[in-house]
Amino acid sequence: KNKELSKDLVNQYTLTDFHLGMMAVPSEGGQEWDMKKAEETITKFFDYAIQTSPKTETAIFAQLGDFLHWDGLDAVTPQSKHVLDASTRYTDLVRLSIKIVKNIIQKLLENHKYVHVIMAEGNHDLASSVWLRETFNVFYSEEPRVTIDTTAHPYYCFPWGKTTLFFHHAHKRKMTNVDTVFVSYYKNEYASADYVYGHTGHLHSMKVLETNLMSIEQHNTLAPKDAYAVRGGWNSLRNSKVITYHKMFGEVDRRTIN
C-alpha cells in the first residue's frame, strides 16, 4: 500500500481553535457544541479529509492551538481568568482529548507512512498543550513512523525540501509581524527554502497575507460560536483545510472541508 504513496508530497491536516469542552447552545449562536458533538465533528472531518486528499507518504497533523477550551480545574482562560462556558469537567476533557488525538494519529498512520504532529500552544491551553506534546512523545517514542514536535516555545517549523512551513497560534505575535520571529528562530530552514508558508489561528476567521518573507494564512475553525463570540459579533465560516505541499514547488493542492 505504501508504494503508491508520493514521497515528494506532504499533506498538512490543519486544525485550530477546536475548543473541545466548550458549550454552545442553538438559542444563542444557532449551533450546538458539546463533547459528543465535538468528537463526532472531528471524526467525520478526518475520515473525509484522509479519504479525499492526495495519497502522500508523509502527513502533518497541524493542531494550531486552543484544542482545549480551558486549562485546569477552573473553566477560565489561563491568563485573564475570563469565565468560560464549559460542557464538562476537566477530568472528562483530558480523557476525551487524549482519546481523540490518539485516534487521529492512528487514522493518519493507516493511510500515510510517516506522521508529524504539532500540538501548538494556544491562549486557552497554555499548560495542556505541554502535556499533550509530552504525553504523545512518550507514547510514540518507539514508533519511528511518528514524530512529535516538542519545541518549548510557541513557534514551530517543518522543513520539507525546498518548502518550509511555520506555525504559531497568533496569541503572542499577530500574522502581520510573526514572519520575522519565524525567520529569526529558524534561520537555516528559512534560508534553504524557495517556498515559505506560515500558519496561524486564534481569531477563528480566514485571512491570507503575503509579506516579503512568506505567505501567512490565518485559519477558520470547525467549532461554532459560543456566547462570547455571538455577543462580540464575531461571525465566521466553519471549516478546516488540508493543504498539500511539494518538496520542490510549494503548495500544489488544497481541500476546504466545511
Calculate the mean pLDDT score and round it. Answer: 96
Low-confidence stretches: none
Strand arrangement in the largest pleated sheet: 4-3-2-1-10-11
Q: Report how far the terminal alpha carbons are from each other.
A: 29 Å
Helix content: 25-40%
- If helices are DSSP runs of H or I spanning 4 or more residues, what is the number of helices? 7
Query: What share of the residues does DSSP label as strand, in percent?
Result: 25-35%
Derived structural class: alpha/beta
Overall morphology: globular
Number of strands: 11
Order of helices and strands: EHHEHEHEEEHHEEEHEE
Oligomer: single chain
Secondary-structure map:
Elements: E1 6-15, H1 26-29, H2 35-52, E2 56-63, H3 90-111, E3 114-119, H4 128-139, E4 146-148, E5 156-160, E6 163-167, H5 179-185, H6 187-191, E7 195-200, E8 207-210, E9 215-218, H7 227-232, E10 240-246, E11 250-257
Parallel strand pairs: 1-2, 2-3, 3-4, 6-7, 7-9
Antiparallel strand pairs: 1-10, 5-6, 8-9, 10-11
Helix pairs in contact: 2-3
What does this structure look like?
- It is a single chain.
- The protein is an alpha/beta fold.
- Helix content is 29%, strand content 26%.
- A six-stranded mixed beta sheet has the order 4-3-2-1-10-11. The protein has a five-stranded mixed beta sheet with strand order 5-6-7-9-8, with no helix packed on it.
- It is globular and about 50 Å long.
